[in-house]
Amino acid sequence: MLACIVIPALVFYGPFSNIRDMWVESAMTTSSHQFLATLFLPEQKIKSIMERANSVIFGNSNPNLLNFVNHHDNTIELYEVRSKYFVGKVMLIKDPTRVKVGVSRLLPREGQTVSQIAQENNAIAAINAGGFLGMENGSWSATGGVPEGIIIHDGKIYYSDLVNDKIKRDIVGFDAEGRLIVGRFNLQEIKSLGIKEAISFGPPLIVNGQPMIKNGDGGWGIAPRTAIGQRPDGTVIFLTIDGRALESVGATLKDVQDIMLKYGAYNAANLDGGSSTTMYYKGRVINNPSNPLGERTVPTVFMVK
Amino acid sequence: MKKKILIWFIFPIIIQICFLFYINNIFLTSGKIDIKQITDSPDLPEKINVKLIYNDVNNDISASYDGKYISFLKDGKIFVLNSKKSSLQKIIYVDDGVVEYYTWLPDRDRILYFYKKNLGYEYEISLVAYDFNNFNYLEVGKIYVRKGENVRNVTLSTLTNMIYVNIVNKFGDSLLYRIDIMGQFNQVYLPFNKIDRMLELRHKDEIFIQSADGRIYLFKNKIGSLFLNKGYELLGVGLNDTVYIGKIINNSITKIFFGKTDQTFSKWNVINLEIPVNLNSVLILPKRNEIGLLKYNSEIELLPSGKVISPDGQYVGYNDNYIIYKKSNNVVLKFY
């Protein structure tokens, strides 16, 4: 009884600002649990916390700055990353042209699990990729059937909600040479960049070698995370961090950026996270998704063919 | 009096402040990130021998997909043994409740279980997942039932994220629920009263259900239609969604039909059995879509190759990788 009164008072109005800020960011970046912050703090205070934390700079990558020679090395390396509060998996794919976008064959009705999309495309590895709308026909379903932004596969626009040329969307994609392109682009720019494989998500975390989060933790709280990056030598980095478990509560965007920097990423972007976070390799899921049966359905994956 | 105030008021507050201080100043501050290369996981062991540390375990023994753990249900609790150490890993139990049903996921060290609590005026059945890799409990959802209603069969697909649960009342009549990815329990209308067997496909939300009167129905997205009339038995489903159905004559299987739901049954392949066999002796081993014929409750002959899996005790069951045998007070897992 005493704890129920004292702990919220200490967290929200006491000296423990790290806990308070993390709580507010985690709650406010969900669509259905914002009340966990608004119940305890005034709107102005929440706004100032979010502004302070959400200091991600935006930028677009320039593929011409990447000049690697692709040796078509088929090697894939797997690593475990571990900190005080998270456990994750990193996959290094030496040949970037092996990375493609996989799309749920059930779109626009529903998504498929990462495993399903990978198996149906004979992919050796995959991670979840683009985001989707949780509300379908007015009710919360989150089956991955309504993607957000754009999906490009094999140079063809598979799906797009960019109704005109002026609208810009966060893009994470590859051109024909396997160069990772991250940033905010409109349809015209996407075409002129020659993007062959792409989905929409963000924010970009490293652009042309520069980290985008200079202060704060990124403002998205702690959660399971998925991200993609590329080294100057072309090696593609897949990253998943487990969350919502005692062993691994999740990571901030800054944590994801730090891991990508540690692996020498020149460009990197955050992908859809939370319950969607899944890494598949050689026939099975190798991370610990927070969904009870292991995986949730998603509209798109980045896969290694 | 002062001492009591100190113990009941000041001391708990100091503990809470210390806990919050640790979270705020140590746990949540960015620190060292350790990196370790993972070599390709070695192949699963060919044979695992587990000494049962309990004497009165019946043959209802299950194993995790990789054989790391074996388990059994006893007195409403799930006992999980570590196969390598032959030691108790964990007992999953619920205060004021009993575990009615559990199953391992086919591709990870995670158990899914249903437990029941008596609320007085009704009973609450909860579905929970426990993961042995991160020691995490995940509550999926709850449903409320009447006295005498129990969980009888459960099927699941980790690819479609659909769980089907058959809850049977005291008259043996079935209530079928589909639990979707959002943890919502939706009742599925049954055009019959009693469920005998259920087989769920792995890649799409389709489930075959055999009614107690012998008819086989195929449900697609909760809508059921008659697939086969009497005279057939559901046998199993392979990893690639190939479905196996036996032709029954005089209570024995004489032919095995196999095919997929996008083909009409008349176009399915068929294997004629030289000697009719008992329904329970036909095993559909999912990994390579193999048909096994269990002989003398031990040896398994694979069809159509004729290859034989030699026994290592009394046959108990199988999962996606191992045949499970019991040999005196040992459990033997044999990779197939």
What does this structure look like?
The complex is a heterodimer of chains A (305) and B (336). Chain A is of the alpha+beta class and 305 residues long. Chain A is built from 7 helices and 19 strands. In chain A, the strands form 5 sheets. Chain A has a 7-stranded antiparallel sheet with strand order 1-2-15-14-16-12-13, with helices on one face. A 5-stranded antiparallel sheet of chain A has the order 3-19-4-17-18, with helices on one face. A 3-stranded antiparallel sheet of chain A has the order 10-9-11. In chain A, helix 2 crosses helix 4. The radius of gyration of chain A is 19 Å and the shape is globular. The mean pLDDT of chain A is 88. Chain B is mainly β. Chain B has 1 helix and 29 strands. In chain B, the strands form 7 sheets. In chain B, strands 2-29-28-27 form a 4-stranded antiparallel sheet, with no helix packed on it. In chain B, strands 3-4-5-6 form a 4-stranded antiparallel sheet, with no helix packed on it. A 4-stranded antiparallel sheet of chain B has the order 7-8-9-10, with no helix packed on it. In chain B, a hairpin with a 2-residue loop joins strand 17 and strand 18. Chain B starts with a helix and ends with a strand. Chains A and B meet through helix 1, helix 2, strand 1, strand 2 and helix 7 of A and helix 1, strand 1, strand 9 and strand 10 of B.
Instruction: Name the beta content range of chain A.
Output: 25-35%
**How do the helices and strands follow one another from N- to C-terminus of chain B?**
HEEEEEEEEEEEEEEEEEEEEEEEEEEEEE
Query: Could you tell me the mean pLDDT of chain A?
Result: 88
Shape of chain B: globular
* Chain pair forming the biggest interface: A-B, 56 and 49 residues
| Number of E strands of chain B | 29
The count of strands of chain A amounts to 19
Q: What is the C-alpha radius of gyration of chain A, as a whole number of Å?
A: 19 Å
Q: How many angstroms does the end-to-end distance of chain A come to?
A: 56 Å
What is the count of DSSP helices of chain B, taking H or I runs of 4+ residues?
Answer: 1
Strand residue percentage of chain B? over 45%
Main sheet makeup of chain A = 7 strands, antiparallel
